[in-house]
Amino acid sequence: LALYFHIGEREEKCIIEDIPSDTLVVGNHKVQRWDLHMRDFLDSAPGLGMFVTVTSPTSEVLLSKLYGPQGTFTFTSYISGEHIICFQSNSTRFAVIAGSKLRIHLDIRVGEHFLDESGIQAKDKVNEVNIRLENLIEQIHHVTREQEYEREREEKFRKTSEETNSNILWWAIVQTLILISVGIWQIKSLRDFFISKKLV
C-alpha cells in the first residue's frame, strides 16, 4: 500500500488496515510542509516529526512512538482484524497560527520479510541456499496465514448472509399472514355492513 494524504499541522489522521494474525508490518513515512512562497510541498524541517500510533482490533496499543520527518515503523499483529494506524505531527504551534498543510507519503508493506544481504553474499553457497530457503518458508507461512484469515472472513460473511436470508423469509411469512388476516377481516366487515343495510 503506497499513498499520500494531506493533514493540518495539528490534525490527526488515521487509516485502517486489515491484517492477518502474526504478521510483520513495515511502514515508511515522509513528511512535507506546504511552502507559501514556493507554493509547493517541500521537505520538512528536521524539528517536525510524526507521532505514529497503532491500535489492534481489541483497542490494544501496539505502537506509540515519535519519529522524525522521515522514518520507518514496524509492528507485528497478534490477532486478525482491522488495525488502526494514526499519524499526528509534533507541532507545538497554537492552532490559530498552525495553519500549514502537511503531505504525508506512506508506504505500508504487510508480511514483509527481510533478507540478510550480507549472508546472501557469503561465499559459501550452502549458506546462501539455506538463507533463501528460510525466507521462502517464512513467505509460505505468511501466505498460509492470509488464506486462513480470508477463509475465516468468508465463513463469517456466509453465516451473516444465511441469518439475514432466514430473517427475511420469516418476515415475508409474517407479512403474508398479516395481509391475509386483514383481507379476511375487511371481507367480513363489508359483508356485515351490507347485511346490516339490507343490501344483500
UniProtKB/TrEMBL annotation:
<feature type="domain" description="GOLD">
    <location>
        <begin position="12"/>
        <end position="110"/>
    </location>
</feature>
<dbReference type="Pfam" id="PF01105">
    <property type="entry name" value="EMP24_GP25L"/>
</dbReference>
<keyword id="KW-0472">Membrane</keyword>
<comment type="similarity">
    <text>Belongs to the EMP24/GP25L family.</text>
</comment>
<keyword id="KW-0256">Endoplasmic reticulum</keyword>
<keyword id="KW-0732">Signal</keyword>
<dbReference type="InterPro" id="IPR015720">
    <property type="entry name" value="Emp24-like"/>
</dbReference>
<dbReference type="InterPro" id="IPR009038">
    <property type="entry name" value="GOLD_dom"/>
</dbReference>
<dbReference type="GO" id="GO:0005789">
    <property type="term" value="C:endoplasmic reticulum membrane"/>
</dbReference>
<protein>
    <submittedName>
        <fullName>TMD11 protein</fullName>
    </submittedName>
</protein>
<keyword id="KW-0812">Transmembrane</keyword>
<keyword id="KW-1133">Transmembrane helix</keyword>
<feature type="transmembrane region" description="Helical">
    <location>
        <begin position="168"/>
        <end position="187"/>
    </location>
</feature>
